[in-house]
Amino acid sequence: MNNFTHDELNLMSIYNSTGTREGLLRELAEMRGFLAEDETELLALTNSALDKLQAITDEEYVLLELFPDFE
Prior knowledge:
Elements: H1 6-15, H2 21-32, H3 40-55, H4 58-62
Helix pairs in contact: 1-3, 2-3
């Protein structure tokens, strides 16, 4: 399984409204379309998370603990 960073996991937790890998892929891709031109760090983070999500299986996705950790 790809190693997600802490920031990627937090981002995915925020957009994980459907609870499925495919749903999260859709939500992140949609959010990416609303980013402003100067939000380059968030764009890079989103692209990295999307790449890693596409590379894992649904079974691996279920094992992820997608709970926001803002501490």
